[in-house]
Amino acid sequence: MGKWVSTGGACPCGKSSDAYAVDENNNGYCFSGKCGGKPFINNKDAPEDKSLFSAEYFPHRGLNKLTLEKYGTLTKFFSGSPIETAFFYPNGAIKVRGFVAKTFRTQGDFTNTHLFGKNIFDKGSKR
User: Are 27 and 67 in the same domain?
Assistant: First the structure.
């Protein structure tokens, strides 16, 4: 553990409200005995508080809710604010667009994907 940059925070384990600290390398440690004093190396092992997150079809960029439902495009919210939208491909690949930082990232294998939404329509259809 390095120099502490943040102290007195809520522990990700949810058992302490003021015993969590983060060092300069983004490693966290809970000083409360309630969660066993488990270190969270680079906060990778820190569990997310699932109650703060939600997902729904959120109209944005000129797309309405019905369109987003048809294509299965969900938006992830954190404490009521949209943070990213996920585009799911039929082969299991996912493309994620961030709202705040305007970033893109992908998950899964994109080598055999096609135009997003192509699987929604019948072969040979024009519209």
Answer: no
Per-residue pLDDT tens for 35-75? 655 566 555 545 555 566 778 888 888 888 898 888 888 88
116 CA to centre of own chain: 20
102 lies in which domain range? 51-120
- Judgement on whether residues 55 and 116 belong to the same structural domain of the protein: yes
Nearest CA among 94, 48, 52 for reference residue 71: 94
pTM of the entire predicted model: 0.54
Strand, helix or coil at 70?
A: helix
Q: How many residues does the chain have?
A: 127
Distance CA 10, CA 59 (A): 33
Q: How many CA atoms lie within 13 A of 82 on its CB side?
A: 16
Split into its structural domains, the chain has a count of 2
Residues 24, 3 contacting (CB under 8 angstroms): yes
Q: Which two tokens stand for residue 2?
A: 């390095």
Half-sphere exposure (Cβ direction) of 55: Cα atoms closer than 13 Å:
12
